[in-house]
Structure prediction request, 268 residues.
Amino acid sequence: MNEQTDRVLVMGILNVTPDSFYSEIRTFDTDAAIAAGLRMIEQGADIVDIGGESSRPGANPVTTEQELRRVLPVIEGLRSRTSVPLSIDTTKARVAKDALQAGASIINDISALRADPNMAGTIADAGAKVVLMHMQGVPQTMQNEPQYQDVVSEVCDFLVERAHTAQEAGIPASNIILDPGIGFGKRLEHNLALLRRLSKLVSYGYPVLVGLSRKSFLGLLLDLPASERLEGTIAANAVAIACGASIIRVHDVKEGRRTADVAIRLRP
Ligand code: 9MG
Prediction:
C-alpha cells in the first residue's frame, strides 16, 4: 500500500450510521455523506473509509440489507466523482463483494476475516486490499474485562497468523495491512503498550494502520469527551508515525494530513 517512506496515508472516517461515537462526523443522509467524503479528499485524505455498521462497544448489529442500503449509494456517489481509493468497513462478505463492484478497493475488516467464511475468498477474487485488525471478543462485550499476559506479543502473533491465513486464501502479502485495533477489547494500559511498542508490529514488514482518532483511551488520559480529544489524537498519531505507522485513520482529515506530513519528517 505505502511502499514509499515519504508519505503516511490518511484514511478519513465516513460513518453512515445513526450511532457513531463521535457525533460531529455522523452522516446518515446519502448526499451529506458524499459531500463529507469529497470534503475529506479536498483536505488531503488518501483513502475514504465508509462504514454502515457501528463497531463501538455495545452497538447493535445491522442486517446485510440495512448495511448495503447505507453504504452502496455513498460508494457509488463518491466513485463517480473521485478516483481516490475507497475502503469499506465491513465484516460481511456480501457487503464487501457489492462494495468492491461499486468501486471500493480496500476491505477494512475489524474481525480480520473471522466473522464470515466467504470474506477471504471474496477479497482474493477481487484482487482487493484488506485491513486485518486485532480485536479481543466482539464489539457488544469487548470492553468487559479484556485480559492479556503480554498484549504486544499476543496482538502481533494474532495478526501474523491472520496474515498467513489471508495468503493461504489467495490474498497476496502486498495487499495486506495490519492494525493493532486500538480500543477493541483493550484497557488503557493495553492501548498505551501497543502504541509505545508499535515498531514491533511494523517489523513484520506489512504496512501498519492505526485507528485511535478521539478514542476513549484519550478521554481517560485527558478526562475529556470525544469532542475535546483532537489534540490528544494529534499527539498519539505523531508517536504512531514516529514508530512506523503507514496509515492513520482519522475523523479530522485536515489535522491528520498536517500531523502526518510533519511527523514523517521527524521519524528517526
Ligand atoms: C471501524 N473501525 C473503528 N476503529 C477502527 C480501527 O482502529 N481500525 C480499523 N481498521 N477500523 C476501525
